[in-house]
Fold each of these.
Amino acid sequence: MGDSSRVAPVSPRTVLLVEDHPLMRTLVERSLQDDGFVVESVGTSRRAIREFEAIDPDVLVTDIDLGDRPNGVELATLLRAQAPYLGVVFLTNYTSIDAMASSVTPPEHAAFVHKGSVEQAGQLRQAIDSALDDTSEALVIAARGDDDPISRLSATQISVLKQIAEGWNNAEIAAQRGVTLRSAERLITRTFETLGVNNDDKRNARVLATRLYIRAYGVPEPPRPRPLRP
């Protein structure tokens, strides 16, 4: 006869991952799976809503900016209303709750993880544990401090840095932003100066700036050329 005092194994927790960028979605999914979670990943909030009941997750891990409505905060609020037990973890490029660009108040006890920290061992698990503990305060896991060059950039500079990381040249950046080439060049120069990178005989400022962007935000989506005019 078996030992009746043995404790039955605990089933792994299920995570519903919502992230619209395929590369980041794959990265987060692998990190969660490495930590022993069962992961169901989707690319849109609408699909998350459709499949929520069938998945019946313990935790929602979602990007805040999903490129469409509802955004991540709105999605979490909606799903938490259906399942009050649901843990909520937000993936964000912002370094604080106050910096989130959202008009919706996040659900209580939500955790926030900077995207640059998702590969750090145990960071997502720590955030999930915090989100499932409804007695804890909101947890914010940032990937960089005030001494990181990226943290000194304005929103406009971060935007142009993303265009550089996507591989666009100055003329195309100017066209996409609707400014003159000279204005775009000045913006790029100021961005490089803020980052503390410059061209010399041995290094290329564009390459250095791109490395900083990827370290903070991950590899950007492949650039899509503008359609040719008929």
Note: The longest strand covers residues 87-92.
Amino acid sequence: MVHASPQVTAAQVLDAGRRAEADGRLDYAIQFYRHLTDHHAGAPEAEEAREALSRLKRQTNSLDGFPRTRPAGPPPLRNSGYPNTSDTARLGPKVGRGPIRIAPAGAVQPSPGIVLPESDTDYFAGRLVAHAFVGIGVFLAVAGLLATIAALLLPSEKLALLPEWVVALRPVVGLTGAAAGVVLFLLGQIARAIFDIASASRDLAAIERAKVEHANASLR
């Protein structure tokens, strides 16, 4: 027996929005929630999406803080079949383009779907290295500052026992270690940001592929 792949449901879209909000990617989270309120208005997930939009609206203090343009990555689910009144008046009606519908889970003849990726396990090795860079950077920065302070406060009788090159380099070594720690910390943070963006783009691309597949299946 041939088993149909799981379909993208309202619960999955809501879960993707929550993951994006938890990761701080509010632009993507808002678009996921708006898709639920537009396409699944009668579902329980739509009510949760409305509450989430209200919460994000209060955080930004105005609707102007909501993104209204296409993001840099692959676009989230959008209602391309029903433009708003102002867009229709400005651009005119779109002929021959019906709304894109996602078949509900358990349909009689479901089209092939995809499973949303779990972003928490994406790029595990890269994220581990980035966290290691951050930890080592913090350690070197703190150790370098402490070494510099200790070298400056070292008694003169103990300095006389050290080689001359050690005495000459004692302030530089600590500052160099602290600077190296700051650089490693910044590199680790940049790497984590890159992996977060890549994970979000993959989630959006997966949903976009599901939308296209369901649209093609509805035309057959």
Note: The radius of gyration is 27 Å.
Amino acid sequence: MVTLEKRGRVYLLTLTGDGEHRLNPALIGDLHSALSQIRAEASATGGVGGAALVIAAEGRFFSNGFDLKWASEKSPDSHRRSRLMTSAFQRTLAALISLPMPTVAAVTGHAAAAGFFLVLAHDYALMRADRGFLYMSEVDRGLPIIDAVMSLARAKMAPRARREALLGGAKLTAAAAAERGIVDGVCGGAAETVAAAVRLGEELAGLTWDGPSYAAARIAVFPEFAKIVELAAEEDPKSKL
């Protein structure tokens, strides 16, 4: 469901296949395992030397949100399944937010609902111009938004963009998303978007920032999210010197 490779100092995590990359426990678990592997490798270096992460996806979708079919099919307890899915996603976002390196989303296709929030959890986002939109579908489907991801929207989206996306269900193209400051750049197609994201990741890795310090700074940028998920920065041994 995902692959992880290293291009220079950049980790490239790809959601594979031509499907919608619906976020169910299996895919969320794969994402979390990959993030854990990256974190372990970064810890082995002491958080020095520079690294970055790019997340991309194959096919028409970056991610079309939660797997609502999985949550409801053949189960009398769909609420329990939904809670399982959302709590796992929340933990994975926490792992991404606390990762000790810069992160870049290569938005190579549609990103809707939880897929949109996955984009927002990155430090940077580049989006292909020729296909795809960002779409908060919850208002159209009558679904609630969990507090943790709503806190990311409040922190990362301007009031106008929040109103259009969260209250209006706007489907934002790459150009519209860039205009509203949701994505940082627009690229020609999927391959160009991934290539540009890897280049940006290499530039960021080249700054050789201290990993734990970078993670602590990011967590401090999102205090509401950190409080909701009980996320604290790892103690830096150098702080005791």
Note: The first helix runs from residue 25 to 44.
Amino acid sequence: MPLLLEPGSKFVMIGDSITDCERARPVGEGLFGALGKGYASLADSLLQATSPEARIRVVNMGTSGNTVRDLRARWQTDVLDPQPDWPPITIGINDL
């Protein structure tokens, strides 16, 4: 099945510890575990394995312990400023 993403698309994964998973600081992007040990790394591995020619970028901006309010406070710098094509969001468990 063909990949339905534009070549060079960028994902900025944002959220709490479910996203963070020990990512590199200040920005979780690149090699050697920089994306952490969670779904951001898994998504990157899957995209690179199935469509390496698409040059998809995955950036992990998850922060452990964040709530929806925390995410709102950093939305501009961590999501809008990097100009993602896709901003998957996983947040809410710390709001319970």
Note: The CA atoms of residues 26 and 61 lie 8 Å apart.
